C-alpha cells in the first residue's frame, strides 16, 4: 500500500504546477504550492500515508460536512431543510446569484458558502463562546485529536476580507433564512473554516462517515446512521461544487474539498481518505488532489457506482 501511495504521489506531483494556491484569503497565499500528501485509514484501523501528509492546513469548506452533521444533530431535520435545500447549485461555491433568483430565498445546499452560513447559524449554544467550544470539541472528538485548534492568522485574514460572505449573510438575514446576530454567525463560520488539520485528521473523520457514524476503535455511535448517510450524499452531489458531476464520473467517491487544499473522502464501509495539495483548479478544488483520488479509485476499485 505504501508503495502504491508513494507512486501515485510521484506520478501526480506535476499537476501542482497547473493550479494556484488560493489568494482571496490573503493568509492562504503562504502555502507551498508543490505540497502533496495523502493518508488512508481503513475499517480495520490500518493507517497508510505518503508525501506531505503531516503538513497542517486550514480545513476550510471541508468543515461544511461536519457543521451540517452538527446542525442535523442539534435541530429537527425538517427545520434544517426549511432553511437550506438539497439540490446541487451548479454555481461556484461563493455564488450569491440564486439567493436572489430562487423563489424560496434559501441556499440550494449546505456545501456552498451561503448554505454553510445557514447550517452554522443552527449550531446550538447560548453564547458565541459556547458554540465555538462545542464546535471545537466535536471536531476534536471525531478527528480523535485533542490538539486541533483554530489558526488565528487565517481566521483574522478571513474575517478581514470576507465581505462576500458578509453580503450573503445579511441577505439571508433580510430574507428571514437566518436569525440572530449576523456578525456572530459569520465569526463562527470564519472560525470553523480556520480550523487546522492534516491528512490524518481528514482520513479519521472521513472514516467515521464511511462507517455510518460508529467509531471503529470504541464501537461508540458518534453520529446517527441517517445523518452520516445524508452527509455522504451531499458530498456526492455537491461536495466538489460545480465539479461534482465530473468527480462522480471519474472518481465515484463521496468527497468534500476546501480552498486550503484539503479533500476528505469517505468510501462507505471501507475507508476514510485525507488529501492535501494547496494548488487549486479554477473551481477551487485541489488540482493534484483530484488526480490522486482518480488514480487511487481506479487502482483499488473504490467507486461506489
Ligand atoms: N471553498 C472553500 O473552502 C471556501 C471557504 C472559505 N472560508 C470561504 O468562505 O470563502
TrEMBL record:
Reactions catalysed, semicolon-separated, are: L-glutamine + H2O = L-glutamate + NH4(+)
What Enzyme Commission number(s) apply to this enzyme? Answer: 3.5.1.2
Q: Which UniProt keywords apply?
A: Acetylation, Hydrolase
Q: What highest taxon heads this organism's lineage?
A: Bacteria
Q: Where does substrate bind?
A: 61, 113, 158, 165, 189, 241, 259
Any Pfam family the entry gives: Glutaminase
GO terms, molecular function: glutaminase activity
Q: Which PANTHER family match?
A: GLUTAMINASE
Quaternary structure, per UniProt, is:
Homotetramer.
Family statement: Belongs to the glutaminase family.
Q: What is this protein called?
A: Glutaminase
Where does this protein come from, organism-wise? Romboutsia faecis
Primary gene name? glsA
Amino acid at each position: 500500500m505504501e508503495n502504491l501511495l508513494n507512486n501515485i504521489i510521484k506520478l501526480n506531483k506535476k499537476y501542482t504546477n497547473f493550479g494556484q494556491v488560493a489568494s482571496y484569503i490573503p493568509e492562504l497565499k503562504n502555502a507551498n504550492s508543490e505540497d502533496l500528501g495523502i493518508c488512508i485509514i481503513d475499517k480495520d484501523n490500518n493507517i497508510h500515508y505518503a508525501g506531505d501528509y503531516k503538513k497542517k492546513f486550514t480545513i476550510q469548506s471541508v468543515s461544511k460536512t461536519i457543521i451540517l452533521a452538527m446542525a442535523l444533530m442539534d435541530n429537527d431535520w425538517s427545520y434544517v431543510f426549511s432553511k437550506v435545500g438539497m439540490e446541487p447549485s451548479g454555481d461556484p461555491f461563493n455564488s450569491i446569484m440564486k439567493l436572489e433568483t430562487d423563489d424560496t430565498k434559501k441556499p440550494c445546499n449546505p456545501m456552498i458558502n451561503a448554505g454553510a452560513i445557514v447550517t452554522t447559524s443552527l449550531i446550538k449554544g447560548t453564547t458565541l463562546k459556547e458554540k465555538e467550544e462545542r464546535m471545537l470539541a466535536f471536531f476534536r472528538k471525531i478527528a480523535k485529536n485533542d490538539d486541533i485548534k483554530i489558526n488565528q492568522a487565517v481566521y483574522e485574514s478571513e474575517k478581514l476580507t470576507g465581505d462576500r460572505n458578509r453580503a450573503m449573510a445579511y441577505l439571508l438575514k433580510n430574507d428571514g433564512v437566518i436569525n440572530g446576530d449576523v456578525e456572530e454567525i459569520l465569526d463562527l463560520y470564519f472560525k470553523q473554516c480556520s480550523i487546522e488539520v492534516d491528512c490524518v485528521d481528514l482520513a479519521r473523520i472521513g472514516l467515521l462517515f464511511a462507517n455510518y457514524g460508529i467509531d471503529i476503535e470504541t464501537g461508540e455511535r458518534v453520529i446517527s446512521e441517517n445523518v452520516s448517510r445524508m452527509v455522504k450524499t451531499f458530498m456526492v452531489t455537491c461536495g466538489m461544487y460545480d465539479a461534482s458531476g465530473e468527480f462522480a464520473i471519474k472518481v465515484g467517491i463521496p468527497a468534500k474539498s476546501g480552498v486550503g487544499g484539503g479533500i476528505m473522502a469517505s468510501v462507505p464501509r471501507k475507508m476514510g481518505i485525507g488529501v492535501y495539495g494547496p494548488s487549486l483548479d479554477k473551481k477551487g478544488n485541489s488540482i493534484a488532489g483530484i488526480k490522486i483520488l482518480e488514480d487511487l479509485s481506479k487502482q483499488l476499485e473504490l467507486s461506489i457506482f
